[in-house]
Amino acid sequence: MSFQAEPNFTHGTQAKTGVLLVNLGTPDEPTPQAVRRYLKEFLADPRIVEIPKFVWWFILNGIILNVRPKKTAAKYAGIWMPEGSPLRVYTERQALLLAQSLARRTSSPLVVRAAMRYGNPSMESVIDDLKSAQCNNILVLPLYPQFAASTTASTFDQLGRILATRRSIPGIRFIRNYHDHPAFIRAIVQNVEAQWAEIGRPDFAIDKLLMTFHGVPKFHLDRGDPYHCQCHKTARLIGEQLGLKPADYVVTFQSRFGKAEWLQPYTDKTLEALGAANTRRIDVICPGFSADCLETLEEIADEGRETFLHAGGTAFNYLPVANDTAPYIEALANVAMDNLGGWVSPNWDAARATRENAITAALATKMGASA
């Protein structure tokens, strides 16, 4: 087996710690060609579709990649921001703001970057950038609050594949989930309360709060995936901190495809039923998403609204994901700091580190090192 060449190293260079935020991914452009490239990478992952590979290859390449890209590209065009895809824009803002937040908590040298599991910037390119920046340790923070094999575990798989081709492996810590972290729950609650301050709090005698999470096939739950349970715990904690009774909110699952049974209740069917029951107002949040994206802005905010109102509902409010709000950035910083112990210190001394690095460089030169 051959290994990738390591980045140039200069003796005495200050070692750093990297923090890698990883989100799911997005096409580079809202075009059929870009969407096709993205879907081909995404849907070829056996963590995403667990059916025999040879069967799925014909379905994916013979049907889906010939039919779906044009329709999906049109949906992406409807949510595209001037800076690009919302998911990538918000994730990169989170990395920038997280770096600033962590710098206020520790003087240790940190490098914070964002990557995508599928698409760009790729995990491989960003990990190489962190290694080139002399990050001897890397904390990997998948931006999925709830663990799922199809998201968090897939990120871990890719991390292993990348590092398996590198000669020098950095120290790695991998965050499994933060679905019940107090700072995360607090950030979601503050985000909801801030929006209720503008539009008014629902009257839960006649209104509902709907918490929708991305769905997965039901057999994932049957085979031991903790995602379903973690989603419900997140919802319960949010409800409690908002002062809600269990009857005031509904937990649902969205984005299913294919004929297999997925986690229920389904979001679209629930919205239809609530509308038909003359529910006056529905407020919808997506606590499983760290950044607004196609699934929240198009599927929920647009299609969900149409479903509810067409079925007889009166008012539909989509409450955007916390995205780059200050409470959410602080939550990510808390999660990161909980996992950076021993790698960073609030008492790091830059002057002392500079002296020690100079000594290291001098000793290396004395021993014959060229750099």
Calculate the mean pLDDT score and round it.
95
- Determine the structural class based on helices, strands and strand pairing: alpha/beta
Which bin fits the share of residues in helices?
A: 40-55%
Please list the strands of the largest sheet in the order they lie side by side.
Answer: 2-1-3-4
Largest pleated sheet = 4 strands, parallel
- Report the count of strand segments: 8
User: What does the radius of gyration come to?
Assistant: 23 Å
Please give the count of helices: 12
Question: What fraction of the residues are assigned to beta strands by DSSP?
Answer: 15-25%
Inertia-based shape: globular
The SSE order reads EHHHEHEHEHEHHEHEHEHH
State the end-to-end distance.
28 Å
Oligomer state of the chains in this structure: single chain
Low-confidence stretches: none
Descriptive report:
The protein has helices spanning 32-43, 53-79, 86-105, 123-132, 149-163, 182-199, 218-222, 227-241, 267-276, 294-310, 326-338, 350-366, and strands at 16-26, 110-119, 135-142, 171-174, 207-214, 249-254, 281-285, 315-318. The mean pLDDT is 95. Helices cover 48% and strands 15% of the residues. α3 (86-105) crosses α11 (326-338), α6 (182-199) packs across α8 (227-241) and α9 packs parallel to α10 (294-310). α10 links the parallel β7 (281-285) and β8. With 371 residues, the protein is α/β, with parallel strands linked by helices. The chain contains 12 helices and 8 strands.
What tags apply to this protein structure?
371 residues, alpha/beta, four-stranded parallel beta sheet, 48% helix, globular
